[in-house]
Amino acid sequence: MNQDDSKYLLYKDYEIELLLCCARTQPSSEISQQIQTLVQQSIDWPYLIQTAARHSVLPLLYQNLKTLCPEAVPKPVLSELRNFFHTNAAHNLFLTQELLKILKLFQDNDIPAIPFKGPVLAAAIYGNLALRQFGDLDIWVDSKDFLTAIDLLTAQGYQTSKTSLIQTGLRRLALYKLYIEYNAHEYPLNSIDNRVHIDIHKSITSKSFFLFQLDFEYLWKRLEPISLFGTEVPNLHPEDLLLILCVHGSKHGWERLGWICDVAEFVLVYQQMEWKLLIEQAKTLGCERMLLMGLLLAQQLLGIDLPEPIHQSIEANPTSKLLAMQVRQGLFHDSLIFEASSKFSYGFRMMERPQDKFRYSVGFIINKSFIPILIAIRDFIIKLKQI
Fold first, then answer.
1. CB 257 within 8 A of CB 222
2. pLDDT tens-digit profile of 268-309?
3. How many CB atoms lie within 10 A of CB 175?
4. Alpha-carbon distance 384 to 363, whole Å?
5. How many Å apart are CA 266 and CA 243, to the nearest integer?
6. Element (H, E) at 141
7. Would you say 251 and 206 are in contact if contact means Cβ atoms under 8 Å apart?
8. 181: closest CA among 205, 162, 206?
9. pLDDT tens digit string along 184-196?
């Protein structure tokens, strides 16, 4: 990390500085010393814990404080962090077991399925299920198996919201079909006891955001399986995984530090990647800016060293630097990173190809104009059924 980049690590609050230092699995000796210095300051511990929770990095915060300076942390604070850490570990273990059951269900019914994020990401790049926060299970299936997968889980007791658009008879409306075409890239399901939340995907993004043309069959042929509790499960090829992480983070404005941590930890684990080939693939798919933005944020906020091909691409792509700056400026604000007035501008500038800019613009109009109409119709139908 050069001197120019280090200035981006200097936030006003000691709490944010401390959080950034702790948001990693392998702090350097310099960062470790900085952590030990920062905890001696007047830390607003409730604010720090609240911010860490919002950014899904509480396990990393606890792990580093416990390892480096437990005596400097107030005992009630350390106890609260410890309790959360163990609760999160148990929750992750439970979700991992549920994931294995669901994958077995799909396998028994000849449905190829790729889990991503969640347990497989924690195991692959953190090396420890307990060090990453995740609240749901994301599973990708081929579009031809999308409805069958949903039906299988529904038969197992999973259900969606009773007030969803799909369950109010709107599927017969042309407006609803337009909504499905542009937005239904995933389908959320919850277990009866609400302990397990699953998103079944037929693509990574909705057409209203970005046509991310990673073919399921192509991904399936490139899988690098990983072991979870002695069971081999499908796992995305590293190049595909990084692109997906960066597209997902960019789509949501990188509003969680945890997503940036994922990218940083990925780079540490997969340093020997063919970075030039990855950049070319990103260009072909139209997501180079998203890739560069994720990597640049990981460098500026968490101090990772980026390979030279990435540095060169960032310098040749000033828009990615401007977008990363916009994210940094709003990352730790209590309000949303992007107000409605700037959200369109952010998304539009992120698109590289004319067809993607057009698609994003149309999708933005649909979401802002048609979805409120659908919701109003849904609410009207619900009221009619209650009469």
1. no
2. 999 889 999 999 999 999 999 999 999 999 999 999 999 999
3. 14
4. 30
5. 11
6. strand 137-141
7. no
8. 206
9. 678 889 999 999 9
